[in-house]
Amino acid sequence: MAKQPAKPVAKAKTAKPAPTKSQAAAKATPDATPAVKPDAAPPAPVLSDVRAKIDHIDRSIQALIAERANFAHQVGKAKGKLAAAVDYYRPEREAQVLRMVVDRNEGPLSDEVLVHVYREIMSACLAQQEPLKIGYLGPEGTFSQQAVLKHFGRSALGLPLASIEEVFQEVEAGNADFGVVPVENSGQGTIQITLDMFLTSNLKICGEVELRVQQYLMSRSGRLEDVERVYGHPQSFMQTSSWLRAHLPKAEKIPVSSNAEGARRARNADDAAAIGGESAGHVYGLKKVVTKPIQNDADNTTRFLVVGRNIFPSSGHDRTSVLVFIHDKPGALFDVLSPFARHGISMNRIESRPSHNAKWEYGFFIDLAGHVEDEAMQAALAELKAHSAQIKILGSYPVAIP
Predict the structure, then answer these.
(1) Residue 178: phi, psi to the nearest 5?
(2) In angstroms, rounded to a whole number, what is the distance separating the alpha carbons of residues 261 and 119?
(3) Strand pairing partners for 395?
(4) How many Cα atoms are found within 13 Å in the side-chain-facing hemisphere of 269?
(5) Are 90 and 162 members of one domain?
(6) Which residues of the chain, if any, have pLDDT below 70?
(7) Domain region containing 105
(8) What is the stated purpose of this protein (predicted)?
C-alpha cells in the first residue's frame, strides 16, 4: 500500500502590531504627506546693530580713502617737481585702475556706479597737486560738460567756451590742460567741425568718452500747448525730428550754438521751449514739457574726444586715430587699408573730409585698434608711408570704459 505524501506543516502566524493613529490616517488617505513642521523664521535684525555696522564700515572706507590720497601724494613727490597739474595726470593709469574695478565687481552695485565712485576718488586725489583745467563747449549745462564730469570728475575745473574752435585754441595756448569735444553721434553720425579742426591743429587725442544722451523738451511753464518756438542745437533737432514732427509740427525751430544756450533763451518766455538734457533744465530753471525723453533712438549715444598736447603710453586696451592724405590714383584707398589687414589690425571707423589743400583732395580719418607703440602698428604705418602723401598720428588713447 503506497504511502500518502506528507502534508506541509503550516507556519505559525505572528501577530502584527496594531497601527498607530498616524499610520492609520495615512492609510485612510494615501495621497496625504506627513506634516512637516516649518523652520522657525530668523529673527529680524536689530536696526541699531545694522546702523552700527554701517558706521564701522564707513569709518574704514574713509580711512582707506585718506590712505590712498596720501599714497597718491607720494606718487607726485616721486615724480619730482613738475610744471603743472597736467604733468601729473596719466590717463593710461586711470584706465587700468577703472578696468580692474570693473573686473572685480561682483555686485550688487553696477559697474557704472563703481566706476563713477572711483573716478571721483582719483579726481580728488589728483587735485591735491592742482585741479586740471578742462575746456568744453559751453555754457554750463551742455552734454559736453556732462562728458567732462564723467571723464575727469568733479574736482577738475571746467572752462565753458563759446565754440569747438575755441576749445582747441585754449588747449593749444596752454590756458586749458585738456579739451572735451563731441565727434560723433550713434544716430546722426560725425560732427564735421571737430574732424576739420584736426586738419590744421597739432593737438593730440588723449581719451574718449561715451555718453548716453537723453533729450527732453523743457520750458518755463511746462505746458505743451504754450510752445510756439523751440530752441536747440542742430544735432538735437535731428535726434528728435520724429517727436517734433508728430507733436509740434507748426512750432518754429530755432538753431543755437548749444542746448544750454537754447535753455538760457527759453527761460525768458512762456511760448518758448528748449531741447536739452536734464542738467540744462536744472541750471536755467525749466520744467519738462513731457516726462519722457523725446529722441528718436532710445540708445542715443554721443562719443566725445579728449584733446591735449601729448600722446600718452599704452594702457593695454587702446585706440589709435590717424589722418591719411592719399595720392589720386586707382586703388589708392585699397593701398592705404591693406597694411593694417596684413598686420592683423582692426579698423573701427573711416571718414573722409576735404583736405582744404587742393580741390577734390581728401583726407581719411581712420580709427584703429591698438596703440601707436605696438609692433604691429609700427610695421603697418611704415608700409603705409609708401602709398600716402602724408600721415598724421592724431593720438593713441584708452578705449572708453563701458
Answers:
(1) -140, 165
(2) 28
(3) 321
(4) 13
(5) yes
(6) 1-40, 76-84, 358-360
(7) 84-213+300-312
(8) Catalyzes the Claisen rearrangement of chorismate to prephenate and the decarboxylation/dehydration of prephenate to phenylpyruvate.
